[in-house]
Amino acid sequence: MPRSYDIKSRSGLALLLLRLGVTCCFFGWAWQHLVWSVPYGEVLWNPDYFGWLADANGVSWEAYVAEVATDTRIRLATRLLGTVYLCLALLAVMVPPGRWWGQALLAIGALLLGVIAFAKYVNAGHAAAMLVEYGGQVLSPLVLALALRCGARAKWPVGIAVLGFCCTFIGHGVYALGLVTTPGHYYGMVHTITGLGAEGATTFLLVAGILDVVVCVGLLIPRLRAPCLIYAALWGLATALARPLSGGILESAHEAVLRAPHFALPLYLLVVLLPRKLDVREG
Questions:
Q1: DSSP string computed for 8-55
Q2: 150 pLDDT exceeds 90?
Q3: Residue 30 falls within a domain, yes or no?
């Protein structure tokens, strides 16, 4: 059995969790690109970002929007990107440790996810919390690439995984606490799943937001690390499943799949940061 799939060793289990999270993330985004849509148009049709392209084509901005950046071209490019994400999902499963080309492609995948995060950020009215929230998804392929290069327990993959973990939970926490405008679908999910009214949903989100911040702080305290990461993994899984449970299985299943890093990263950190005496067999 390849070392990266030998779950009897801690390093093998950690790599397997990373592969699971990254593969599901890429596959979920492939699903969204191929079946649904991604708001690339919000960036392409924004003169602050692509006004230079209209100038380069020697046309007015209105002509650029009408003729150059057409919906048809965007849809075609979106479908092509969906195919790329499918290939990246397969790569995350199959690439063996120590292959520089595999690590380079995973890094490119992280860059592509960063483009999605930026498009979502623009679509959300340039809300910084939205950009931060996607940190876990964007950084997961980079964590996997570094783990394949340096080892799952090396300082670089662990450090970047901590950064991605904190970005995701702090981003969620900022929204849940109402420090920026809480998206309406947060309340909708809480109401649909729990049956709570407006006041109860607000309290629920407030508590969840506080805990999102607490687990990030607890990660830095050795005695609190394990319970915080276990809670974070369970909460990450719950919030991922909340999408299809509240929005319809067929319409929203991909939303749960692409959020796999939200629970895979805490589990990875739990494995690599456990006390060494708890190893079954060190890999």
A1: TBHHHHHHHHHHHHHHHHHHHHHHHHHHS--TTHHHHT-HHHHHHHHH
A2: yes
A3: yes
Number of H helices, E strands in the chain: 14, 0
Mean pLDDT of 17-46: 93
Count of CA atoms in the C-beta half-sphere (13 A) of 58: 0
Q: Is 264 exposed, middle or buried (0-12, 13-18, 19+ CB in 10 A)?
A: buried
Can you tell me the distance from the alpha carbon of 145 to that of 141, in angstroms, rounded to the nearest whole number? 6
Give me the domain span that covers residue 168: 3-278
Helices (H), 36-154: 41-44, 47-56, 61-63, 71-94, 100-123, 128-133, 135-150
* Domain-located, residue 283: no
CA distances from 176 to 127, 143, 209, 229, 241 (A): 14, 27, 5, 19, 17
What lies within 8 Å, CB to CB, of 240 at 6+ separation is 255, 256, 257, 259, 260, 262, 263
Q: Locate tokens 């299985």: which residue?
A: 249
Instruction: Work out the angle at residue 80's Cα, subtended by the Cα atoms of residues 77 and 86, and round it to the nearest 5 degrees.
Output: 145
Q: What is the pLDDT of residues 98-119, one digit of tens each?
A: 899 999 999 999 999 999 999 9
Residue 148 lies in a domain: yes
Cβ neighbour number for residue 154 with a 10 Å cutoff: 14
DSSP annotation of 281: B
Region class of 140: left (phi > 0), else alpha (psi between -120 and 50), else beta: alpha
pTM above 0.85, yes or no: yes
Per-residue pLDDT tens for 158-174?
A: 999 999 999 999 999 99
